[in-house]
Protein backbone atom coordinates (compact mmCIF):
# COMPACT_ATOMS: atom_id res chain seq x y z
CA UNK A 1 0.00 0.00 0.00
CA UNK A 2 1.44 3.33 -1.07
CA UNK A 3 1.47 5.94 1.67
CA UNK A 4 2.44 9.58 1.66
CA UNK A 5 2.76 10.40 5.33
CA UNK A 6 5.61 12.84 4.71
CA UNK A 7 3.59 15.12 2.42
CA UNK A 8 0.51 15.12 4.65
CA UNK A 9 2.60 15.75 7.79
CA UNK A 10 4.52 18.59 6.14
CA UNK A 11 1.33 20.25 4.85
CA UNK A 12 -0.32 19.98 8.26
CA UNK A 13 2.72 21.54 9.96
CA UNK A 14 2.83 24.28 7.35
CA UNK A 15 -0.79 25.09 8.12
CA UNK A 16 -0.66 24.72 11.92
CA UNK A 17 2.79 23.91 13.37
CA UNK A 18 2.57 20.90 15.67
CA UNK A 19 -0.29 19.18 13.89
CA UNK A 20 2.19 17.36 11.65
CA UNK A 21 3.83 15.88 14.75
CA UNK A 22 0.41 14.91 16.14
CA UNK A 23 -0.42 13.28 12.80
CA UNK A 24 2.82 11.30 13.11
CA UNK A 25 1.71 10.18 16.61
CA UNK A 26 4.43 12.17 18.36
CA UNK A 27 2.02 13.46 20.98
CA UNK A 28 4.31 15.25 23.43
CA UNK A 29 6.41 16.90 20.73
CA UNK A 30 3.26 17.89 18.85
CA UNK A 31 1.67 19.46 21.95
CA UNK A 32 4.86 21.41 22.69
CA UNK A 33 5.17 22.76 19.14
CA UNK A 34 1.44 23.49 18.91
CA UNK A 35 1.45 25.33 22.26
CA UNK A 36 4.45 27.38 21.19
CA UNK A 37 2.70 28.23 17.93
CA UNK A 38 -0.47 29.34 19.72
CA UNK A 39 1.54 31.61 22.03
CA UNK A 40 3.51 32.98 19.05
CA UNK A 41 0.38 33.71 17.01
CA UNK A 42 -1.25 35.43 19.98
CA UNK A 43 1.86 37.54 20.63
CA UNK A 44 2.76 38.43 17.04
CA UNK A 45 -0.81 39.16 15.97
CA UNK A 46 -0.61 42.45 17.86
CA UNK A 47 3.11 43.11 18.30
CA UNK A 48 4.28 42.43 14.73
CA UNK A 49 2.07 45.10 13.06
CA UNK A 50 3.16 47.57 15.75
CA UNK A 51 6.81 46.65 15.17
CA UNK A 52 6.49 47.15 11.41
CA UNK A 53 4.77 50.49 11.99
CA UNK A 54 7.39 51.53 14.54
CA UNK A 55 10.43 50.63 12.44
CA UNK A 56 9.03 52.30 9.32
CA UNK A 57 7.62 55.52 10.81
CA UNK A 58 9.65 55.94 14.03
CA UNK A 59 6.57 57.55 15.53
CA UNK A 60 4.03 60.19 14.56
CA UNK A 61 3.46 62.38 17.63
CA UNK A 62 6.27 63.77 19.82
CA UNK A 63 5.90 64.49 23.52
CA UNK A 64 4.49 67.95 24.15
CA UNK A 65 3.16 70.39 26.75
CA UNK A 66 -0.47 71.51 26.72
CA UNK A 67 -2.31 74.07 28.78
CA UNK A 68 -4.91 72.62 31.16
CA UNK A 69 -6.68 75.11 33.45
CA UNK A 70 -3.81 77.53 33.07
CA UNK A 71 -1.18 74.92 33.93
CA UNK A 72 1.28 73.18 31.64
CA UNK A 73 0.76 69.45 31.46
CA UNK A 74 3.12 66.98 29.82
CA UNK A 75 1.53 64.69 27.25
CA UNK A 76 3.74 61.70 26.36
CA UNK A 77 4.14 60.91 22.68
CA UNK A 78 6.12 58.51 20.53
CA UNK A 79 9.77 57.95 21.45
CA UNK A 80 11.47 57.19 18.14
CA UNK A 81 14.51 55.40 19.56
CA UNK A 82 12.48 53.27 21.95
CA UNK A 83 10.19 52.37 19.05
CA UNK A 84 13.19 51.32 16.96
CA UNK A 85 14.64 49.15 19.73
CA UNK A 86 11.30 47.53 20.59
CA UNK A 87 10.57 46.91 16.91
CA UNK A 88 13.97 45.29 16.39
CA UNK A 89 13.41 42.98 19.36
CA UNK A 90 10.02 41.90 18.01
CA UNK A 91 11.41 41.37 14.50
CA UNK A 92 14.31 39.32 15.86
CA UNK A 93 11.88 37.20 17.89
CA UNK A 94 9.73 36.75 14.79
CA UNK A 95 12.79 35.61 12.83
CA UNK A 96 13.49 33.02 15.54
CA UNK A 97 9.90 31.83 15.36
CA UNK A 98 10.22 31.45 11.58
CA UNK A 99 13.22 29.17 12.21
CA UNK A 100 11.13 27.10 14.62
CA UNK A 101 8.28 27.04 12.10
CA UNK A 102 10.52 25.78 9.28
CA UNK A 103 12.17 23.26 11.61
CA UNK A 104 8.76 21.90 12.61
CA UNK A 105 7.84 21.37 8.95
CA UNK A 106 11.15 19.62 8.24
CA UNK A 107 10.77 17.45 11.34
CA UNK A 108 7.24 16.43 10.37
CA UNK A 109 8.36 15.63 6.81
CA UNK A 110 11.35 13.61 8.03
CA UNK A 111 9.24 11.60 10.48
CA UNK A 112 6.61 11.03 7.79
CA UNK A 113 9.29 9.72 5.46
CA UNK A 114 10.31 7.22 8.15
CA UNK A 115 6.68 6.08 8.37
CA UNK A 116 6.53 5.75 4.57
CA UNK A 117 9.51 3.39 4.75
CA UNK A 118 7.76 1.25 7.36
CA UNK A 119 9.54 2.53 10.46
CA UNK A 120 7.73 3.65 13.58
CA UNK A 121 8.00 7.33 14.61
CA UNK A 122 10.40 8.01 17.46
CA UNK A 123 8.87 8.45 20.89
CA UNK A 124 9.57 11.57 22.94
CA UNK A 125 11.98 9.59 25.12
CA UNK A 126 13.83 8.33 22.05
CA UNK A 127 13.97 11.88 20.69
CA UNK A 128 15.52 13.14 23.93
CA UNK A 129 18.07 10.32 23.86
CA UNK A 130 18.96 11.13 20.25
CA UNK A 131 19.42 14.80 21.12
CA UNK A 132 21.58 13.88 24.13
CA UNK A 133 23.75 11.46 22.17
CA UNK A 134 24.12 13.21 18.83
CA UNK A 135 22.94 16.83 19.16
CA UNK A 136 24.17 17.70 22.65
CA UNK A 137 26.73 20.27 21.50
CA UNK A 138 24.23 22.04 19.24
CA UNK A 139 21.66 22.07 22.05
CA UNK A 140 24.14 23.62 24.49
CA UNK A 141 24.82 26.37 21.95
CA UNK A 142 21.20 27.54 21.90
CA UNK A 143 21.51 29.89 24.90
CA UNK A 144 24.92 31.31 23.86
CA UNK A 145 23.58 31.82 20.33
CA UNK A 146 20.55 33.65 21.70
CA UNK A 147 22.85 35.81 23.81
CA UNK A 148 24.97 36.67 20.77
CA UNK A 149 21.84 37.45 18.77
CA UNK A 150 20.32 39.86 21.28
CA UNK A 151 23.44 41.21 23.01
CA UNK A 152 25.78 41.52 20.02
CA UNK A 153 23.99 41.37 16.67
CA UNK A 154 20.93 43.40 17.70
CA UNK A 155 23.01 46.35 19.06
CA UNK A 156 25.12 46.29 15.89
CA UNK A 157 22.00 46.42 13.70
CA UNK A 158 20.64 49.23 15.89
CA UNK A 159 23.89 51.19 15.50
CA UNK A 160 23.85 50.70 11.73
CA UNK A 161 20.25 51.88 11.47
CA UNK A 162 21.03 55.06 13.42
CA UNK A 163 23.38 56.11 10.62
CA UNK A 164 20.38 56.37 8.30
CA UNK A 165 18.40 58.69 10.60
CA UNK A 166 18.70 62.32 11.71
CA UNK A 167 19.10 61.35 15.38
CA UNK A 168 21.16 64.33 16.54
CA UNK A 169 21.01 67.32 18.83
CA UNK A 170 19.39 69.82 19.03
CA UNK A 171 16.34 69.29 16.80
CA UNK A 172 15.91 65.51 16.69
CA UNK A 173 16.36 64.22 20.24
CA UNK A 174 13.41 62.26 21.68
CA UNK A 175 11.07 62.46 23.46
CA UNK A 176 10.54 66.14 22.66
CA UNK A 177 11.30 65.57 18.98
CA UNK A 178 10.85 62.74 16.53
CA UNK A 179 13.60 61.02 14.58
CA UNK A 180 13.17 60.46 10.84
CA UNK A 181 14.76 58.23 8.24
CA UNK A 182 17.07 60.31 6.01
CA UNK A 183 18.83 57.65 3.95
CA UNK A 184 22.50 58.36 3.25
CA UNK A 185 22.36 61.97 4.42
CA UNK A 186 24.72 61.32 7.37
CA UNK A 187 27.36 59.87 5.06
CA UNK A 188 26.84 62.76 2.63
CA UNK A 189 27.51 65.24 5.43
CA UNK A 190 30.76 63.49 6.32
CA UNK A 191 32.09 63.80 2.79
CA UNK A 192 30.37 66.89 1.36
CA UNK A 193 30.18 69.45 4.17
CA UNK A 194 33.61 71.02 4.57
CA UNK A 195 33.38 71.27 8.35
CA UNK A 196 32.64 67.56 8.68
CA UNK A 197 34.77 66.27 5.80
CA UNK A 198 37.83 68.21 6.97
CA UNK A 199 37.49 66.75 10.45
CA UNK A 200 36.79 63.24 9.21
CA UNK A 201 39.72 63.12 6.78
CA UNK A 202 42.07 64.73 9.30
CA UNK A 203 41.14 62.37 12.11
CA UNK A 204 41.16 59.38 9.74
CA UNK A 205 44.66 60.27 8.52
CA UNK A 206 46.02 60.53 12.06
CA UNK A 207 44.23 57.30 13.01
CA UNK A 208 45.98 55.39 10.22
CA UNK A 209 49.37 56.93 11.07
CA UNK A 210 48.89 56.20 14.76
CA UNK A 211 47.80 52.59 14.17
CA UNK A 212 50.78 51.80 11.94
CA UNK A 213 53.40 53.52 14.13
CA UNK A 214 51.96 52.12 17.37
CA UNK A 215 51.95 48.58 15.99
CA UNK A 216 55.41 48.73 14.42
CA UNK A 217 57.14 50.40 17.39
CA UNK A 218 55.76 48.02 20.01
CA UNK A 219 56.57 44.98 17.88
CA UNK A 220 60.09 46.10 16.98
CA UNK A 221 60.78 47.10 20.59
CA UNK A 222 59.57 43.75 21.91
CA UNK A 223 61.48 41.89 19.18
CA UNK A 224 64.78 43.63 19.94
CA UNK A 225 64.50 43.13 23.70
CA UNK A 226 63.49 39.47 23.30
CA UNK A 227 66.40 38.79 20.93
CA UNK A 228 68.86 40.49 23.28
CA UNK A 229 67.66 38.57 26.33
CA UNK A 230 67.80 35.29 24.41
CA UNK A 231 71.58 35.58 24.09
CA UNK A 232 73.66 33.36 26.36
CA UNK A 233 75.92 36.25 27.40
CA UNK A 234 73.12 38.09 29.24
CA UNK A 235 73.09 37.72 33.03
CA UNK A 236 70.04 37.87 35.32
CA UNK A 237 67.60 37.13 32.51
CA UNK A 238 64.75 36.45 34.93
CA UNK A 239 65.20 39.84 36.59
CA UNK A 240 65.26 41.66 33.26
CA UNK A 241 62.15 39.83 32.07
CA UNK A 242 60.31 40.71 35.28
CA UNK A 243 61.19 44.40 34.95
CA UNK A 244 60.03 44.46 31.34
CA UNK A 245 56.71 42.76 32.14
CA UNK A 246 55.84 45.08 35.06
CA UNK A 247 54.16 47.76 32.88
CA UNK A 248 51.92 45.05 31.42
CA UNK A 249 51.04 43.74 34.88
CA UNK A 250 49.89 47.15 36.14
CA UNK A 251 46.29 48.07 35.16
CA UNK A 252 46.55 50.19 32.04
CA UNK A 253 44.25 52.92 33.34
CA UNK A 254 46.50 53.49 36.36
CA UNK A 255 49.63 53.52 34.19
CA UNK A 256 48.17 56.03 31.73
CA UNK A 257 46.84 58.37 34.41
CA UNK A 258 50.24 58.26 36.12
CA UNK A 259 51.92 59.07 32.80
CA UNK A 260 49.50 61.94 32.24
CA UNK A 261 50.56 63.43 35.56
CA UNK A 262 54.27 62.89 34.82
CA UNK A 263 54.02 64.62 31.44
CA UNK A 264 52.00 67.54 32.79
CA UNK A 265 53.55 70.70 31.36
CA UNK A 266 53.13 72.80 34.51
CA UNK A 267 53.95 70.58 37.49
CA UNK A 268 54.90 67.21 35.99
CA UNK A 269 58.12 65.66 37.35
CA UNK A 270 59.57 65.15 33.86
CA UNK A 271 59.62 68.89 33.15
CA UNK A 272 60.94 69.54 36.64
CA UNK A 273 63.87 67.20 36.01
CA UNK A 274 64.52 68.91 32.68
CA UNK A 275 64.64 72.29 34.41
CA UNK A 276 67.47 71.02 36.64
CA UNK A 277 69.59 70.73 33.50
CA UNK A 278 68.66 74.19 32.30
CA UNK A 279 66.15 72.96 29.75
CA UNK A 280 62.83 74.73 29.30
CA UNK A 281 59.49 73.12 29.99
CA UNK A 282 58.24 71.09 27.05
CA UNK A 283 54.55 71.15 26.06
CA UNK A 284 54.22 67.37 26.14
CA UNK A 285 50.42 67.33 26.06
CA UNK A 286 49.51 70.84 24.92
CA UNK A 287 51.38 71.14 21.61
CA UNK A 288 49.94 69.10 18.70
CA UNK A 289 53.25 67.59 17.61
CA UNK A 290 54.60 66.96 21.10
CA UNK A 291 51.26 65.43 22.14
CA UNK A 292 51.39 62.95 19.25
CA UNK A 293 55.00 62.11 20.08
CA UNK A 294 54.08 61.60 23.73
CA UNK A 295 51.20 59.21 23.09
CA UNK A 296 53.42 57.12 20.78
CA UNK A 297 56.20 56.92 23.40
CA UNK A 298 53.80 56.03 26.20
CA UNK A 299 52.14 53.41 23.99
CA UNK A 300 55.54 51.79 23.43
CA UNK A 301 56.01 51.57 27.19
CA UNK A 302 52.53 50.10 27.66
CA UNK A 303 52.42 47.79 24.63
CA UNK A 304 56.00 46.53 24.24
CA UNK A 305 55.82 43.95 27.09
CA UNK A 306 53.11 42.00 25.25
CA UNK A 307 55.17 41.87 22.06
CA UNK A 308 58.17 40.84 24.16
CA UNK A 309 56.23 37.94 25.68
CA UNK A 310 54.93 36.79 22.29
CA UNK A 311 58.34 36.88 20.61
CA UNK A 312 60.01 35.21 23.61
CA UNK A 313 57.48 32.41 23.41
CA UNK A 314 58.19 31.86 19.72
CA UNK A 315 61.97 31.93 20.29
CA UNK A 316 61.66 29.22 22.92
CA UNK A 317 60.04 26.89 20.35
CA UNK A 318 62.77 27.20 17.70
CA UNK A 319 64.90 24.06 17.63
CA UNK A 320 68.60 24.57 18.34
CA UNK A 321 69.31 21.99 15.63
CA UNK A 322 68.38 24.59 13.00
CA UNK A 323 71.05 26.96 14.28
CA UNK A 324 73.63 24.16 14.57
CA UNK A 325 72.96 23.13 10.98
CA UNK A 326 73.29 26.77 9.89
CA UNK A 327 76.64 27.07 11.69
CA UNK A 328 77.89 23.97 9.89
CA UNK A 329 76.98 25.67 6.62
CA UNK A 330 79.00 28.71 7.68
CA UNK A 331 76.10 31.06 8.47
CA UNK A 332 76.82 33.89 10.89
CA UNK A 333 74.43 35.37 13.45
CA UNK A 334 72.98 37.84 10.98
CA UNK A 335 72.32 35.12 8.40
CA UNK A 336 70.84 32.83 11.05
CA UNK A 337 68.48 35.58 12.13
CA UNK A 338 67.56 36.43 8.55
CA UNK A 339 66.98 32.85 7.38
CA UNK A 340 65.72 31.13 10.56
CA UNK A 341 64.69 33.38 13.44
CA UNK A 342 62.85 36.19 11.70
CA UNK A 343 60.81 34.01 9.25
CA UNK A 344 59.63 31.73 12.07
CA UNK A 345 58.74 34.71 14.28
CA UNK A 346 56.79 36.38 11.50
CA UNK A 347 55.00 33.14 10.62
CA UNK A 348 53.75 32.86 14.20
CA UNK A 349 53.25 36.54 15.01
CA UNK A 350 51.86 37.96 11.74
CA UNK A 351 48.18 37.19 12.54
CA UNK A 352 48.64 38.72 16.00
CA UNK A 353 50.22 41.82 14.47
CA UNK A 354 47.16 42.24 12.27
CA UNK A 355 44.95 41.95 15.35
CA UNK A 356 47.12 44.50 17.18
CA UNK A 357 46.90 46.86 14.21
CA UNK A 358 43.11 46.57 14.25
CA UNK A 359 43.18 47.12 18.00
CA UNK A 360 45.27 50.27 17.64
CA UNK A 361 42.65 51.71 15.30
CA UNK A 362 40.36 51.43 18.32
CA UNK A 363 42.95 52.23 21.01
CA UNK A 364 40.62 54.34 23.09
CA UNK A 365 42.43 54.18 26.44
CA UNK A 366 45.83 55.57 25.48
CA UNK A 367 44.44 58.58 23.64
CA UNK A 368 41.52 59.42 25.89
CA UNK A 369 43.28 58.96 29.23
CA UNK A 370 46.48 60.74 28.17
CA UNK A 371 45.28 63.70 26.11
CA UNK A 372 41.48 63.38 25.94
CA UNK A 373 42.01 63.93 22.21
CA UNK A 374 43.65 67.29 22.79
CA UNK A 375 45.04 69.77 22.24
CA UNK A 376 41.94 71.31 20.71
CA UNK A 377 41.80 72.00 16.99
CA UNK A 378 39.60 74.98 16.02
CA UNK A 379 39.30 73.65 12.46
CA UNK A 380 37.74 70.37 13.61
CA UNK A 381 34.18 69.55 14.59
CA UNK A 382 34.24 68.30 18.21
CA UNK A 383 37.70 66.72 17.77
CA UNK A 384 41.24 67.51 18.84
CA UNK A 385 44.66 66.98 17.30
CA UNK A 386 45.22 63.52 18.82
CA UNK A 387 41.67 62.21 18.53
CA UNK A 388 41.23 58.88 16.78
CA UNK A 389 38.01 57.97 15.02
CA UNK A 390 36.97 55.97 18.09
CA UNK A 391 37.52 58.84 20.56
CA UNK A 392 35.86 61.30 18.18
CA UNK A 393 32.90 58.95 17.94
CA UNK A 394 32.76 58.84 21.75
CA UNK A 395 32.69 62.64 21.99
CA UNK A 396 30.01 62.94 19.33
CA UNK A 397 27.71 60.59 21.23
CA UNK A 398 28.39 61.15 24.93
CA UNK A 399 29.21 64.86 24.86
CA UNK A 400 27.27 66.23 21.89
CA UNK A 401 24.41 63.78 21.20
CA UNK A 402 25.18 63.57 17.46
CA UNK A 403 24.35 59.91 17.09
CA UNK A 404 23.73 59.70 13.35
CA UNK A 405 27.16 61.00 12.36
CA UNK A 406 28.79 58.86 15.06
CA UNK A 407 27.04 55.75 13.73
CA UNK A 408 28.17 56.55 10.18
CA UNK A 409 31.75 56.90 11.45
CA UNK A 410 31.41 53.57 13.28
CA UNK A 411 30.29 51.82 10.09
CA UNK A 412 33.17 53.31 8.08
CA UNK A 413 35.66 52.40 10.82
CA UNK A 414 34.37 48.82 10.87
CA UNK A 415 34.65 48.50 7.09
CA UNK A 416 38.21 49.85 7.14
CA UNK A 417 39.37 47.56 9.94
CA UNK A 418 37.55 44.45 8.70
CA UNK A 419 38.62 44.91 5.09
CA UNK A 420 42.23 45.67 5.96
CA UNK A 421 42.50 42.80 8.45
CA UNK A 422 40.96 40.18 6.15
CA UNK A 423 43.00 41.20 3.11
CA UNK A 424 46.28 41.28 5.02
CA UNK A 425 45.66 38.05 6.90
CA UNK A 426 45.02 36.24 3.62
CA UNK A 427 48.45 37.44 2.43
CA UNK A 428 50.36 36.07 5.43
CA UNK A 429 52.27 32.80 5.29
CA UNK A 430 50.30 31.71 8.36
CA UNK A 431 47.23 31.58 6.13
CA UNK A 432 48.87 30.33 2.93
CA UNK A 433 51.24 27.75 4.47
CA UNK A 434 49.33 26.34 7.43
CA UNK A 435 51.31 23.10 7.29
CA UNK A 436 54.71 24.80 7.62
CA UNK A 437 54.94 24.18 11.36
CA UNK A 438 53.46 21.08 12.95
Q: What does this protein structure show overall?
A:
Helix 4 runs antiparallel to helix 7 and helix 10 (237-249) crosses helix 13 (288-317). Strands 1-2 form a two-stranded antiparallel ribbon. The two termini are 59 Å apart. Strand 1 (64-68) and strand 2 form a beta hairpin. The chain has helices spanning 5-15, 19-23, 27-57, 80-116, 124-134, 136-140, 142-162, 185-192, 194-229, 237-249, 252-262, 269-276, 288-317, 320-328, 333-361, 364-370, 389-399, 403-427, 429-432; strands at residues 64-68, 71-75. The chain is built from 19 helices and 2 strands. The chain is an all-alpha fold. It is a multi-pass membrane protein. Keywords: Cell membrane, Membrane, Sugar transport, Transmembrane, Transmembrane helix, Transport. InterPro entries: MetI-like, MetI-like_sf.
The proportion of strand residues reads: under 5%
Query: What is the CATH fold-level name of the largest domain?
Result: MetI-like fold
Q: Kindly state the percentage of residues in helix.
A: over 70%
Q: Which architecture of the largest domain does the CATH hierarchy give at level 2? A: Orthogonal Bundle
Low-confidence stretches: none
Distance between the termini: 59 Å
Mean of pLDDT: 90
Number of domains: 2
Radius of gyration of CA atoms, rounded to a whole number: 31 Å
Concise summary:
It is found in: Cell membrane. The chain crosses the membrane at residues 27-45, 83-105, 141-164, 203-230, 242-263, 289-318, 339-359, 402-423. The protein has helices spanning 5-15, 19-23, 27-57, 80-116, 124-134, 136-140, 142-162, 185-192, 194-229, 237-249, 252-262, 269-276, 288-317, 320-328, 333-361, 364-370, 389-399, 403-427, 429-432, and strands at 64-68, 71-75.
Amino acid sequence: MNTNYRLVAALLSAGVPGTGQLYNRQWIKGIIVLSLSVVAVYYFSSSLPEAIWGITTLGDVPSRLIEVDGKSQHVPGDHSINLMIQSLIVLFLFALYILVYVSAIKDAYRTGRHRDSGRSPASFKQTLKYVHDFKFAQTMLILPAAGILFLTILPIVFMILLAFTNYASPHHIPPGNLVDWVGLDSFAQLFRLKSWSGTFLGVLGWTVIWAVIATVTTFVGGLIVALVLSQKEIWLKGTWRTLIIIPYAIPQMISLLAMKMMFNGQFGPINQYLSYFGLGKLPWLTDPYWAKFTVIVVNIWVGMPLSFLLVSGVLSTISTELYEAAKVEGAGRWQQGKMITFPIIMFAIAPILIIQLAGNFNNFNVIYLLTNGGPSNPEYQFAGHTDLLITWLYKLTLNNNIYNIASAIGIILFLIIAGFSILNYRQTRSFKDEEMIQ
